[in-house]
Design brief:
Layout lengths: L8 H10 L1 H4 L6 E6 L6 E6 L3 E7 L6 H14 L4 E8 L4 H9 L3 E4 L3
Parallel strand pairs: 3-4, 4-5
Antiparallel strand pairs: 1-2, 2-3
Amino acid sequence: AKTQVCKTEKELARKLFDNWFDYFDDDFDIIELEFATSLGPIDLLGATPTAFYVIEVKRKRASLKDVTQLRRYVEAMEGQREIKGFLAAPDISDNAMKYLSKHGLEYLKVVF
């Protein structure tokens, strides 16, 4: 038997990348997939002259663990420009949503 994974995080990140301006209105200098950091790659990074948009993508319901991952990426980018952190997923748990709000991060509902 062969296992096939349908609808990966990479596909969802690609959907966001291809439709970026359906979600964000700012004037972006760059939009990059898999932006390398010392903590690992950020799924999507957008940059305006004054801010970085750090987007962590999950293909399933986002959890508290996913928020802490986003928070680490946001902290790794601090000090360069204003940082706006987003957790993009089809759904999010209540605890994850509370933790996002507590840390000034945002949820971005994205479906396949």
